[in-house]
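The material for today's practical consists of a large collection of protein records. Read left to right, the backbone structure tokens trace the chain's path through space. An example says more than a description, so a record of this kind follows:
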Amino acid sequence: MPQDHPAPMVSGPDQDPSPDYLTLGGPSKGLHRSSLLSRDERLAGRPNLCSDCGLCDSWLQRDMAKACVFVRNRAEAIERRVFGRNRRDGDELRFGVFEQMVAARMRRAVPGAQWSGMITTLGARLLERGVVEAVVTAGTMPGTRFAPRPVLARTPEEVLATAGNKPSLSPNLNLLDEVRDSGIKRLAVIGTSCQVHMLRAAQDRLGLERLDVIGFPCSDNVAYPDLTFFLKQVSRSPDTIVHYEFMQDYSLHMRHEDGSMERLNFIDFPMDKLDGIFPSACLSCFDYANGLADITIGYMGARLGWQWVLIRNQRGAELFELLRPDLEFRDLDAAGDRRRGMPRYLQMLAKPAGKPPKPIRRLIAWLQRNRGPRGLEFARAIIEMKMFRNLHHVRERFARFEPRIVPGFVYRALADYEDAHQEAMGRPIHPTVEPARTPEA
């Protein structure tokens, strides 16, 4: 690795995390202070908006200004190059370009996988069939449950060993040095939306014959110390959690070592204790659905227990066919009306309220599960809420960056809420729209 590049946080299976990386003491910063991460030591000197994707640890560091989504969001230009078109009106404004959406799951779940193991199986199968020579993915740091470790897997077994979610920022793109030095020409990358944006932006520089991009929906990753802090605030037994996820039934599901499942309703989160755990970069991202991947595999648009798959182009269709023989399917559906609750959400975003009394929280949780958006409507609701929240964050903390980092499809996706936004925020959704004039007395 060139000497003028910072050393990667993790580069091999035997490298232990530094003591600073595992330090626990609660969030060191609040949301009202701009931050790289809650722990800044590793990224000192980098821009305030940085998700530690790893690009700046690689030989592509000098391309950062041309590739980084937080310098300039190039999603719409990349869409035209990768998919031959931009997002159409409707669901594509929220979910990204897609050719097909399905709900599916593995008939036989992969041991240790977060859900049924579709992403893990796909990565392993690409190596089994010789389609690619290596897979960039994230394993787990030895001695931890969730601390990520970038892995360049060369065998199916190495991919299978990385099964399971690592909901922390991970510099996976620092492995592009090893890819280049190893002479790899056919590569698959499993990544977050910011990693995928950087990868696509720099794709022509990689010298690859084939690149398969497997994405998963991603939002609000944290530095590992803050993840540990978060689990201590929400769980009765944080040290025994092996998987957790924010689920479609409006609760956080936490699976423990003994197989038991702990659930915490979203409305019951101790938000007063969680201020400061989310990086500014994640609060300035507008690609929850990982729209630049060939195929995106998550859960958000499917019913509980199933996975949501967005096949975005012909390459994504080819990848899906590798999985099809091992899958079972169900129909995608939608219920509820997300638009009814959005005006209230905007009011809360503008003027955050305190936590309601417990009986009221129980009622809200019941209403969310039984009357709130479900299925695809849940996915639409969550993505629109994240768009509004992050647009508000950018305007509050990084206003001058808005023209560069907020893509045009965000304003189109949210346009139906113009009146509610104007009432709550006192300004239009799109910055070029003239604010409503108050009639003269």
Observations:
- DSSP finds 17 helices and 13 strands in the chain.
- Confidence is low (pLDDT under 50) at residues 1-39, 435-441.
- Residues 69 and 197 are 7 Å apart (CA to CA).
